[in-house]
Each structure stands twice: as C-alpha cells, then as structure tokens.
Amino acid sequence: MSTPRKRPRQQRSQETYDAILEAAAQLFERHGYAAATTNRIAERAGVSIGSLYQYFPNKDALLYALGERHMLQLVEALGAVFARLREEAPPLEGTVRTLVGALADLHRADPVTHRLLYDQAPRPPEAAAQLRGVQTAMAREVEHHLRRLGVGGPDRALTALLLVQAAEAQVHGALLDPPAGRSAEEVVEAVVVLCLRSLRP
C-alpha cells in the first residue's frame, strides 16, 4: 500500500497536510472511497493538485495517513484511561464501565473517520495490522485487571482478547448504526451488562 511521500516540518506545511486529510475524510464519507478523486480532494482542501501530490501520491496514501492518525489518537486516549485504571484500581463493575465507556468515547470522537476506516474503504494489510496491535495492547491491559480482580477463568489472556474484540464490535455497531428504537446509550449499557455477566461467577 502507498504511504505519504513526505511529512510536514513547518506549521504552514502541517496546516496544508491536515487540510488535505480532513478533505479526504469528508469526501470519502460523502461520496465513498471509490468515487472520491484526488482532484476533488484538492479542491475541497483549497490547495492545488500539485500540493496534494507533494505529500500523497494517490488515494491509498491518504487512507493510510488517515488510519495512522486515527490509531495514534486512539492509542493516546486509551493510554490515559489505562493509567487511571491502574492508579484507581476500581472493582469489577467500575473497571468494565470505564473500559466500555472509553471505547464508546473513541467512536463518538471521530465517527466520520471511524466509519470510513472500518466500514467503507478497503482495509489493507497495514491497517488490519494496526488494529490488531491496538487490540492486543488493550487485551494485555484487560488481562492485568482480570488477574487483579480474580476473574476471567484459567486462560485470562484469551478471555481478555475475546472481551476486547466483542466489546469493540458491539460498541462500533451501537454508535454508528444503532438498532431501531434503541439509543446508543442503551446499547452501550447492554454491552456493559454482557461483559459483567460473562465475568461474574
């Protein structure tokens, strides 16, 4: 998969780079990944096509950069949540609510990019590897709390990974396409209840 040609080093270049990425995310969301063109993205960003190609050789490179930015934001936000959980060490329900709530907040923070990366655009191997890396890091942290709380069965590593994957998928669906007649908050609460039921003896 193509990657960005170069990274901005000055503030003005960073502003141009960010404007192109934001325009790409908006047009991918509005018209679909296949229909959006680099010419339309440049026009939307208010830059020349030459300026766009200075940073991104094609749409794949734009998608890669969007995914990279999204994953960095996700890792930073989760890191703060994990640090707070380690410090506060809440009981089981508080731990589960904090983790599921963090996933919900991440989906709410940037739904356009999230929908694009997970539902609309083709997911290249690099993006899939990034997601697996984040899920693995989350699972390690969840495993720590399962051990701390004395729950999760004999194979806590597997339990933690399955919990992370299931909760992420359920929260994703709840917030981006909630069931008819149900609010996103109701479904997120149901995810918390399901996690608690699977962990309590």
Structure characterization notes:
- This protein has 201 residues and is an all-alpha fold.
- It folds into 2 domains: 11-57, Arc Repressor Mutant, subunit A, CATH 1.10.10.60; 60-199, Tetracycline Repressor, domain 2, CATH 1.10.357.
- 78% of the residues lie in helices and 0% in strands.
- The protein has 9 helices and no strands.
- It has helices spanning 11-31, 38-45, 49-55, 59-88, 92-109, 111-120, 125-149, 156-176, 184-199.
- The longest helix has 30 residues, at 59-88.
- The radius of gyration is 19 Å and the shape is elongated.
- The model has no long low-confidence stretch (mean pLDDT 87).
Explain briefly what this protein structure is.
The protein is an all-alpha fold and 201 residues long. The protein has helices at residues 11-31, 38-45, 49-55, 59-88, 92-109, 111-120, 125-149, 156-176, 184-199.
Which structural traits does this protein have?
201 residues; mainly alpha; Arc Repressor Mutant, subunit A; Tetracycline Repressor, domain 2; 2 domains; 9 helices; 78% helix; 0% strand; elongated; transcription cis-regulatory region binding; DNA-binding transcription factor activity; TetR/AcrR family transcriptional regulator; transcription; DNA-binding
Distance between the termini: 46 Å
Question: At the third CATH level, what is the topology name of the largest domain?
Answer: Tetracycline Repressor, domain 2
Residue-averaged pLDDT: 87
Rg over C-alpha atoms, rounded to the nearest angstrom = 19 Å
Biggest β-sheet: count, sense, barrel? none
Q: What's the helical proportion of residues?
A: over 70%
Domain count, please report it.
2
Total helical segments: 9
Run of helices and strands: HHHHHHHHH
CATH architecture of the largest domain: Orthogonal Bundle
Regions with pLDDT < 50 over 5+ consecutive residues?
Answer: none
The CATH homologous superfamily of the largest domain is called Tetracycline Repressor, domain 2
Report the structural category: mainly alpha
CATH top level label of the largest domain: Mainly Alpha
Number of strands: 0
Q: In percent, how much strand structure appears in the residues? A: under 5%
Global geometry: elongated
